[in-house]
């Protein structure tokens, strides 16, 4: 059977827009409107910011933990269950427009929240749900930890797509896990409207370096807050500066260059055509997981088994915090992580 023909030119977009800080439904409406706008421009892959639905937990960055209870509970009430009507609406829009969509959500799984990235293929199928493996600083009071099952590159209508959230890009082994699976388009998501210009500078360095090192395109989306929204998060002028700036919505080529000028303020849709032929052009010179690698000296072990809190029960009685879909290649959920740590590279655990 012949492999499906893939496009050589892919029109991509990254959305820098403000969430609705009042309700999940309001933010989903903004997501669907952005998808329609991108479709009218011929976009085939669209990326939204980190935990865009219902909103990034900015409150946790400026409030002491003892004062975050009310907003944390409100985030629980508006978080996204996967699957649910919210994800169904996005899937239907992806299918209607034949577009790959990568959406950041606060995922609720029973009593826990997770920073999740959802990759919908052009047929509306949810190809990957992954969770940020280590929440950063203040985020650790908000989200649980993801697992290695989400460090996966998936085949989509526009090519092989991998994703990481925010400071996961500072974990070189997490990045290498995706590089070794030959990602062609890497999706990066950051909150935006945080920390100020230094954050935007750091984001730019990080995504341009990953594009060069991986030899792939990087599509990065950061969020945006209006002045009214910033004021609603904190009445203190000094604290408002902490939730301002820090935007770097960008699309970067395998040669580490901006394909189009980045978007660093305001709302907008950044659109660019990706020439996938540039991937081979870059890797001909330096393929960090191929002819430029030395696996006999340096290699990576990835434990790709979902982390589950109960082992040994019948399948229908095992409670899992790693809900489907993770993909089709991970090891069985009942593999005992505590007694068998012999893990093959990107494979099932050794027996």
UniProtKB/TrEMBL annotation:
Entry protein name: Nit6803 family nitrilase
Biased composition (Basic and acidic residues): 326-340
Pfam family, one: CN_hydrolase
Domain CN hydrolase: 10-276
Annotated PANTHER family: CN HYDROLASE DOMAIN-CONTAINING PROTEIN, NITRILASE
Region (Disordered): 311-351
Family stated for the protein in its record: Belongs to the carbon-nitrogen hydrolase superfamily. Nitrilase family.
Top-rank lineage group of the source organism: Bacteria
Gene Ontology molecular-function annotations: nitrilase activity
InterPro entries: C-N_Hydrolase, C-N_Hydrolase_sf, Nitrilase, Nitrilase/CN_hydratase_CS, Nitrilases_CHs
């Amino acid at each position: 059977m012949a492999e499906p023909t893939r496009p050589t030119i892919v029109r991509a977009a990254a959305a820098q827009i403000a969430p609705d800080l009042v309700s999940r439904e309001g933010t989903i409406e903004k997501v669907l409107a952005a998808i329609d706008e991108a479709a009218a421009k011929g976009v085939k892959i669209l990326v939204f910011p980190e935990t865009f639905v219902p909103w990034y937990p900015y409150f946790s960055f400026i409030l002491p933990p003892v004062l975050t209870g009310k907003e944390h509970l409100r985030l629980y009430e508006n978080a996204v269950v996967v699957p649910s009507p919210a994800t169904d609406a996005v899937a239907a829009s992806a299918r209607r427009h034949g577009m790959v969509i990568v959406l950041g959500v606060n995922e609720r799984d029973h009593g826990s929240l997770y920073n999740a990235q959802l990759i919908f293929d052009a047929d509306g199928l949810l190809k990957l749900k992954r969770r940020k493996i280590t929440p950063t600083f203040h985020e650790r009071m908000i989200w649980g930890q993801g697992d290695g099952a989400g460090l996966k590159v998936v085949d989509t209508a526009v090519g092989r797509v991998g994703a990481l959230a925010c400071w996961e890009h500072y974990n070189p082994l997490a990045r290498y896990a995706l590089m070794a699976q030959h990602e062609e388009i890497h999706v990066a998501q950051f909150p935006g409207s945080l920390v100020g210009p230094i954050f935007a500078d750091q984001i730019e360095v990080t995504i341009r370096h990953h594009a060069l090192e991986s030899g792939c395109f990087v599509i990065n989306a950061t969020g945006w807050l209006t002045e009214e929204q910033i004021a609603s998060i904190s009445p203190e002028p000094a604290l408002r500066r902490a939730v301002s700036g820090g935007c770097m919505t960008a699309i970067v080529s395998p040669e580490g260059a901006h394909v189009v000028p980045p978007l660093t303020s305001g709302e907008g849709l950044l659109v660019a055509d990706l020439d996938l032929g540039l991937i081979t052009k870059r890797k001909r010179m330096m393929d960090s997981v191929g002819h430029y690698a030395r696996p006999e000296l340096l290699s990576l072990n990835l434990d790709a088994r979902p982390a589950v809190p109960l082992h040994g029960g019948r399948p229908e009685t095992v409670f899992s915090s790693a809900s489907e879909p993770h993909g089709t290649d991970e090891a069985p959920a009942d593999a005992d992580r505590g007694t068998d740590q012999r893990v093959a590279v990107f494979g099932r655990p050794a027996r």
